Amino acid sequence: MAMDHKLSTTSLIPLLLTTFMLMISFFNSISPTEARHLLQTTPKLPDLPTLPEPELPTLPDVELQPLPEIPKPELPNLPELPELPELPHLPELTHVPKLPTLSSSPHSTANP
Fold first, then answer.
1. Each residue's pLDDT tens digit in the chain (112 positions)?
2. DSSP 43-103
């Protein structure tokens, strides 16, 4: 009798992540001997010349300058709004009807 083994998503994701992490660890690793050899045999690059700082124009001191006067706009003339009508008086609910009890089982005796 052949057994059908299906990988579920929950078991497949950790397997893929583990495989990926192993591949990355082998791909990025170099031994100390290789690192030392690379440091000794790599030619040193010449230092790049430093660029002079550009001369920027000076900005005016904003704190010493007075702010310009801006005229305030006039408000529009709005007509008066009519008063709202009174709402009808609703009686207070003293008795709230009880909702039926629902059950998740298909053959429930809670709600006949």
1. 455 556 666 778 888 888 888 887 776 677 788 888 888 898 888 888 888 888 888 877 777 777 788 998 888 888 887 888 887 877 777 777 777 777 666 665 555 5
2. PPPPPPPPPPPP-PPPPP-GGGSPPPP-PPPPPP-PPPPPPPPPPPPPPP---PPPPPPP-
DSSP structure class, residue 7: -
Say how far apart CA 19 and CA 24 lie, in whole Å.
9
Q: Which two tokens stand for residue 80?
A: 């008066």
Which backbone phi and psi does 63 adopt, to 5 degrees? -65, -30
Q: Is the dihedral of CA 21, 24, 28, 32 positive or negative?
A: positive
Evaluate whether 16 touches 24 at the Cβ level (below 8 Å).
no
